[in-house]
Amino acid sequence: MNTEQIGDVLIITMPARLDAIGVASIENQLSEAVNSHKGKTLVDMSEVSFVASLALRMLLTNLKQVQGMGGDLRLAGLQPQISEIFRKSRFDTLFKIAADRETGLAEYA
Amino acid sequence: MDHEATVIEVPAQWASIEALLNFVDELERTLALPDDQAYLVRLVVEEFATNIVKYSYEQHKQGIIQLSCTCDEDELRVIIRDHGQPFDPNYSPEPDLSGDVENRSVGGLGVFLVREMCDVLTYHHDRASGWNELVVIKKRQERTDGSA
Predict the structure, then answer these.
(1) CATH code given to domain B6-139
(2) How, if at all, do strands A40-44 and A9-13 pair?
(3) Would the CA dihedral through A1, A11, A60, A78 be positive or negative?
(4) Residues of B in contact with A97 (CB under 8 A)
């Protein structure tokens, strides 16, 4: 997991596999980054090739927390199979999802 | 391609999940699985094997998980076996997919995702032997562009 800040937006780049191992390796770091930034957060999913229910739960937990502090957590760059999981689980109605990082940044401006 | 089968057996503990996921990587290569099928095998491991580790065996009981995978020109078949607590996913409640960010519940999502991504999901608990067997089948996608 990588973080960088562009203007007032915290960009978090997710690793390729958000399986049980992937989630366990980043969940503390993600929650810390989101909770200390408290503001506009963009999660770049373009490298992610796998998510399951555990990763959806992790993202939703962080969305709730940051919205509670007046911020937001949006997603960008979902690969087709990941989009399908978001659609089927209706998680696409919970997150604002941009086609890519640049679009996500522009929408925050 | 002829019928090819591969099987792995691991102790039902958290450390084995990584071994199972690595095994799926291997399967993806050796069976040359298309992306959607490889995704499904990973999803089955992720949603069911982790549940077996968490819930199926009492703490004092040494359990195992068997994962096998067969693949031919028609379908992919993933089988997970254990001999812990019976759990029939066909009786697990449908998840509530409505709700906004605050009220969205996430229970039952794992079983739901597997069911959505596969074509057939069957479960059998054998009372005599105590084995549970979950079978997940995904048909090969028909080509619609007319090419062979």
Answers:
(1) 3.30.565.10
(2) parallel
(3) negative
(4) none
Domain ranges of chain B: 6-139
Please check whether residue A100 is in contact with residue A46, taking contact to mean a CB–CB distance below 8 angstroms. Answer: yes
Domains identified in chain A and CATH numbers: 2-108 (3.30.750.24)
Among chain B residues, CA nearest to A68: B102
Q: Is B106 left (phi over 0), alpha (psi -120 to 50) or beta?
A: alpha
Q: Which residue has the tokens 């399967």?
A: B27
pLDDT of B148 above 60: no
**Contact state of A90 with B50 under an 8 Å Cβ cutoff:** no
Return the sign of the alpha-carbon dihedral for residues A89, A94, A96, A101.
negative
ipTM, interface predicted TM-score of the complex: 0.92
pTM equals 0.92
